[in-house]
Amino acid sequence: MSSKFFEQLSQDLSQLLKSEYDYNVVITVCEQPNIQLFKGHSAILYQRSLYFRQKLVNAVKKNNIIEIKLPTISAKLFNIIINYIYGGIVSLENFEVSAKFDLLVAANELEATELVKHLQSQFINDNASWLRINFSRVYQISFLNKNFEPLQQFSNNILTKHPGIIFNSDDFTTLQESALI
Question: What is the pTM of this model?
Answer without folding.
Answer: 0.87
